[in-house]
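User: Show me a protein chain along with its predicted structure.
Assistant: Here is one chain, sequence first, then structure tokens.
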Amino acid sequence: MTQAATLVKSRLEGGQYRVRFVNPQEHYRRLKAEIDGAIFDCLENGDLIHRKQLFDFEKNLAAYAGTKYAVGVNSGYHALLFSLIAKNIGPGDEVITVGHTFAATVSAIVHCGAVPILVDVAKDFNMDPEKLEAAITSKTKAVIPVHLNGRVCPMDEIMRLAQKHNLAVVEDAAQALGAIFQGTMGGAFGDAGCFSFYPFKALGGFGDGGAVTTNDPDVARIVTLLRYNGEDRDTGEFYYHGQTALLDNVQAAVLDVKLRHFPFWVAHRRRLARLYQEDLADVKEVALPHFLGQEHQDSYQNYVIRTERRDDLRSHLKDSGIETLVSWPTPMWHHKGLNLGPWNLPETESICREALSLPMNAEVTEEDVGIIARAVRDFFN
């Protein structure tokens, strides 16, 4: 048995150690005093819906993202849906997005009555501008670039094409808070940026949550109305048949606490990514998520490696006490219930077979990375 395997085995037998993919208990323990104080402040003052904590978080999120406005909603899905509606996307319109994304991205297109057009991704898991351009037709009205795994899409080219063809740009930035391209953060390029605060995101709540960032006052206004049944809360006037999709105050208060720590967590993720890169550089069977382009500052929401032996490697890591994640092992359009039709997206198909996410979060330590890397090397040796 190798030294790494012996170390992990002894810790597992002693019940003292397991490298977890996420560790919500430890995450809460580290912030307990601040989080408890924020929650108790809400409850003691009866601030449950549409109060100061929400407004403070929206202001602070907009400042961090580099936009004029941020509007809190109850999920990343609703952020996408409301942003499309705010840009008048509806029946008969085509919206281009990638095939390698969570189903909610495409569901938002479907639920506003539009037709999703799927394109393939590049080696960095993000939208390929050449594939985007080839898919544009006279019916195309919007594009949803998905900034995956904490890396921003090539937004210079995407914005150029959008301006050329008069397309709305709604960024799916659910995995990109803190990620930068050419000095601008994901979610601040297009008409709207859509974020998710699902608990296991880099900035996550204690339930679902989301937000729209924008520099467009009309988009901010429409999303604000749609999230609360179409009602202007100040006047009581209804402007839309909206939905019940408000980010509640308790979640906003928790997220505002975490947002203060978030820049440090992003820096920590970048350090861990460098360690992974150094420790796994000699494993030729594994492709690492370090891509060309000094204009990119990735935030590493996920650390996703690729290998043709993905499933066997995952089993080996599980036996070594290391949790991993496989996102979307089945290409989205293969799910018959989504009724998306056939698509030929070979890079997406390959990613679904090969991609494996290694532990990457605020609680992962440098020692953890060393143990994981040794276990990966042991497998291939």
